[in-house]
Design brief:
mainly alpha; Methane Monooxygenase Hydroxylase, Chain G, domain 1
Chain lengths: 218, 218
């Protein structure tokens, strides 16, 4: 029974890592569609979204099954509840890639506003945060989780920089308003990816360092 | 043991309703601070945020304790995992009220851009969605959950309306750019409140209508 449980827990981790890899790819592709003006890749993002939604249901069911069949000890129970929450965060950060391509589609119909520098940097940073937060979760590593939390400030700063820069564009040139606004909102989509990575990291710390559930209540 | 479990489950629901009431109040207060230019209420929102964060930890621990001590049957287990997710959504939608007052503080230092009509409507709609989604969750009512999902379209439409209107302001008057942008972002904060209510509603449908966990796996 214990061996069976360990195997299923391992499968749960593998599925979460698969979901995280998909979500990271979606973010990279969404920003590629925007920056390289590559419309073909937009369809890929929408296709992957379906896969992510399916995987979310599969992972939620795995969490329920693990608890129901194996009645895990406190530490593992805490981990499995954390996995269900991580699952939600991964699905929602993947949604941000969809939000980005929704806006990219409209932007590709107009001439580009300016060369992109900050948005690809934000995307790279956000993806690294996702990968590291997930890695920290499956390895129950609070130190790596805390490193993710620190990097969120950097992402916020980049968002502020691009907002200032694009606001100035809007003031100088009224014709740039809709494009500049779309780019500001895309920067916020990437900020939200970072927020979800932060949630996963905070959740990991709660899972690993939180009080033992059996020491109180009842 | 069963009576004890039922009582604890009831307490869990009461705590979730308390958290939801707090979050709703925060949204109302954040928009009041903005619309009525009432700085005093900003401090109230920040104070309530601390209360919400504390309640989130309490509710997560209650979920863990309920599962660990009572090993609930499949339907209740699904509900408790749903409660943990609902808990996260409530905390995050309360954060949107904080995001709104952060921007309101800057806006109150400048003359008002225009009379507010859409933002208070969005706030009322979003709060109703939160209340109804939570009500539907604690009563395991998928019909009421589906009604919440329908209202999200209305909220999205209001967000699009205000974005169009404020973009026009920015084009007409460069001096309005930073204030108009802040209001567009506040409308998006309210849209995100609605998104969290939608998540709670979808989660309720999964809890009530999802496949029985004991019929598969292992």
């Amino acid at each position: 029974m214990q061996r069976h449980f360990d195997e299923e827990l391992q499968t749960l981790k593998v599925q979460l890592m698969r979901m995280s890899a998909l979500a990271e790819a979606m973010i990279a592709e969404a920003v590629k569609a925007l920056v390289e003006r590559d419309e073909k890749v937009i369809a890929t993002v929408y296709a992957r979204e379906k896969e992510v939604n399916h995987l979310q249901v599969v992972i939620d069911e795995m969490c329920l099954t693990l608890i129901a069949l194996h009645q895990p000890a406190a530490g593992d129970l805490r981990f499995i509840l954390g996995a269900a929450k991580t699952n939600s965060d991964l699905e929602r950060l993947a949604d941000q890639a969809v939000n980005i391509v929704d806006k990219a589609k409209a932007l590709l119909e107009e001439p580009p506003l300016r060369p992109f520098t900050i948005i690809p940097r934000m995307a790279t940073l956000a993806r690294t945060m996702v990968r590291d937060s997930l890695h920290a979760f499956v390895n129950r590593d609070p130190a790596q989780s805390r490193a993710v939390l620190l990097r969120d400030d950097e992402l916020d700063q980049l968002k502020r920089d691009i907002t200032v820069e694009l606001s100035e564009f809007m003031r100088q040139d009224p014709a740039s308003v809709s494009r500049a606004l779309a780019l500001i909102l895309i920067a916020r989509n990437l900020e939200r990816v970072g927020d979800h990575a932060t949630n996963i990291a905070e959740n990991t710390i709660f899972v690993v360092e939180g009080r033992d559930v059996r020491h109180h209540g009842g």
